[in-house]
Design a protein that fits this description.
Layout: E1 12-14, E2 20-22, H1 26-46, H2 51-75, H3 88-102, E3 112-113, H4 118-143, H5 150-173, E4 179-180
């Protein structure tokens, strides 16, 4: 069976439950940006031998798949369909990782100019995509009249923080000095 179905050739796609949506629907925008982030994290994972970083990224990729399923289930008309939600525990796990990384890098009181190593720069790029995913999820929730849904948004917010400190840690470990922005 070929990968192509031709069902999306007119600008629509399916989500859980067979619901067809335009490819620029806020849900599809959110899911696409989360997929973009997960894909970039896979590329980043392929560039390192650091078990700590590999393990964190794998966990996050699994979380992002769970998040996508949760968002798609939110819109799906299937009655009783329950996807595993991103929870406060997932957010707390990211906070623990942030605390561990921050304990091993110098405090920061200035803006940095992104650069340094390829791996560090890619982690910063992933952070920027994560911020876009967060904006797209907020737009989706607003389009559905959903108030808050803090765990998904909090997770993406915390993930961008984690990617930031990981980028700093990697750059410093690889011997690159941080460049500070001076207004």
């Amino acid at each position: 069976m070929p990968i192509y179905t031709r069902l999306g050739d007119k600008g629509n796609t399916s989500v859980i439950g067979g619901v067809r949506l335009p490819k620029d629907h806020p849900l599809i925008e959110a899911l696409g940006t989360i997929d973009e982030l997960a894909s970039l994290l896979g590329y980043i994972r392929s560039l390192t031998d650091e078990d700590y970083l590999i393990n964190i990224i794998k966990e996050v990729q699994v979380d992002l798949h769970r998040m996508s399923a949760e968002l798609a289930c939110t819109y799906s008309p299937i009655i009783g369909r329950k996807c595993e939600d991103i929870s406060r525990n997932d957010v707390a796990r990211l906070e623990l990782y942030i605390d561990e990384v921050e304990a091993n890098i110098p405090p920061l009181d200035k803006f940095i100019v992104v650069g340094g190593s390829e791996l560090s720069s890619l982690l910063h790029f992933a952070r920027a995509i994560c911020r876009r995913a967060e904006r797209r999820v907020v737009t989706f929730f607003k389009s559905q009249g959903v108030e808050g849904h803090g765990d998904v948004i909090a997770y993406l917010n915390r993930l961008s923080d984690l990617l930031f400190v990981l980028a700093r840690k990697v750059g410093l470990e690889e011997g690159f000095e941080e460049e500070y922005w001076t207004p």
